[in-house]
Amino acid sequence: MNIQKTGYHGLYFPDLGISLDGYHPEAEVVFVSHAHADHMPRNRKARAITTHPTLDFMDCRGFTGSGEPLAFGESFENNYCRVSFYPAGHILGSAMIYIESDSGTLLYTGDYRTPPSPATEGFEAPKTADILITEATFALPIYKWKSHEELTHEIHSFATESLNDGYTPIFLAYNLGKAQELMHILAPLGHPVMIHGAGFKLCDVYEKYGIGLGNYSVYDRDTCEGNILIAPSSAMANGFASNVSKKRTAYCSGWAANESRRTQLTVDKMIPISDHLDFFELIRFCKQLSPKMVFITHTPNPAVVEHYLSKEGIENSFLHLEADPED
Q: What is the rounded average pLDDT of the residues 205-229?
């Protein structure tokens, strides 16, 4: 199967007339795995097929091409292949893209998480695929995630202890996916949440598809003290909650599992909650799918994954695509 790169992160399949997560002028259509900026096609001429929530997010984030929704369980067919989506568990609407053609079967994961984020449609995969193209954002054995139950307890404890001590808790998280997952986790506490404006405009899509986000409003500098606050890390440099004298800050990312990040950040708590699967789930999934070939993408550390997959007798190679910044 002929696979070519298109742009920083996209793939083009000239024999099939399609591209994935990146516009190509000769492709009939581009399939979009999810609505993080590094996976959305930037060309306004793009004919994009994706899930309903992803299309809604893309509209919110300024996509100007032609969008067509494809539900999980449905398929798209042209003269060369059939394409269907499997829920990826990364953010709401995220999909793994499964391609069936005369050349065999291929699964492109996009970004994925198993066990899935509780603020998604879950995770499901085909039983097997001849070729697996998988991200490996957290491609070292130091990345092994805690259970959802442990993370929920950690998040609840940070919020309630801060509030009980008279501090305003701030959770630092990306505007799409992680922010809403935190809101979904915090919702049972019943305490009011304020979210940064860039994330706030995306929350309606979660509510539309039945993901409860609790008692929330858009961030207001004058009244934010005493609320639970959620914002991207970049907002802190722009004066977010700078008028609040008593605050505690938690950095929420898979990168929080790396202790070197603690020295780079001025925060009170590191919570290693990720939108991606950890190293051990990656290896397990590759073994489960039993592909003839694995292409590893989105990682600064391909050698470790290649070593472990080779030990399992799984042929593999590194396909250089830019690492995902949104975790």
A: 98
